[in-house]
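Database export, one record per block. Field names are fixed; values are copied verbatim from the stored entry.
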Amino acid sequence: MNTNNHYDVIVIGAGPAGLTAGIYLSRARLKTLIVNEGTVGGQMILTHEIANYPGVESISGYQLSSIMKKQATTFGCDIKANTSITKLKLQGDTKSITLDDGMSYTSNAIILSPGGRSRTLHVFGESKFKGRGISYCATCDGDFFTDKEIMVVGGGNSALEEAVSLTKYASKVTIIHQFDHFQAFDHAIEEARQHPKINFIMNSSITAFYGKEKLESVDIRDLKNDTITNFKTDGVFIFIGYVPNTEFLKGKIVLNEWNEIVVNPDMNTDLRGVYAAGDSVAKRYRQITTAIADGTIAALAASDYVHQLKTRNKQLIAN
C-alpha cells in the first residue's frame, strides 16, 4: 500500500455535504481526501442568494462554498476538483478509487456525496438551445437576459425563488407549471404572486423549443383542454428538480427506485465503512442545511468506524 496515497477517509463529492464531512473529519485529525467531478460547491454555487441559513442573514452560494472549502483545507483536508473516477472499490476494509489522471488512492472509509444535477424536460429543441436561451442556473445566466422577457418552468421552492431573483434582470417573468398549485413554502409563493413582473401560466407544460441561432419561441400545452399555443420568449429557465449523480454506484451499493442511495440513521449504506450524505441520499427534504446535517452525521460515523478499525488492527498485530 502506498502510504502517501492512503487516507483515513475519502469523500466523493464537494457540495455542502461533502465539504462539511471534510471539515469534521480533518478537524478530528483524520487524513481526508475530497474528490469532485466539477467545481467545488456543487449545486450550492448556482444559488444566487441563501437567506435562510441559520446565523447568516444573506450569502450567495458561491461565497458559502468558498468559506467551507477554506475551512476544510485549513484543517488539512486535501481536495481534488474537476476530476472523474474511473475505478471504484467499496467492499472490504480497504476501499480504493482511481481518477482519470491514472492516480489511485485508498482509504479505510468512504463517504458518498455526489449530489445531483438539474432535471431536463426531454422535449424537442431542448438540447439544441441549452446555453442559447435555455438555462438551469439563474445566478450563472440571469444577467444575459437584462430587459428581456423570460419564462421559468417549475413549481417548487427553487423555481419560485429563482423567478423572483430573475426579476432583477428581466422585464417580465412568466412561470409555467403543470399543476394548478405550487409545491413550495407559503412565503415563496406569496412573494412570487405579489411581484409585479411575474405572471403565471398554470396547468401547462412546454412541449417544444424553436429558434435559429438562439431560442425565439416555445410551444405550451394547456393540460386541461389539450391545446397548444406558441409563445415568443427570449429565454427559459428550468427548475424542475434534480437527478441523483449515482450512475457510477449502480451494482455497487443499494439504491432505491429513484436511484437514490439508501442509508440508515447513521448515514451508513449497506456496506461497512461506506457512508452517504446530501442530495443523492433517499430522503424527503433537500436543503443546504439538511445536506450539512447529513455530512456531519456521516463524518462522525465514519470517524468512529475508522478508529474502531485501527484499534482492531492494532490488537491483531499485538496478538
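Remark 1: DSSP finds six helices and 17 strands in the chain.
Remark 2: The helical segments are 16-27, 61-74, 138-141, 157-166, 186-194, 288-318.
End of record.
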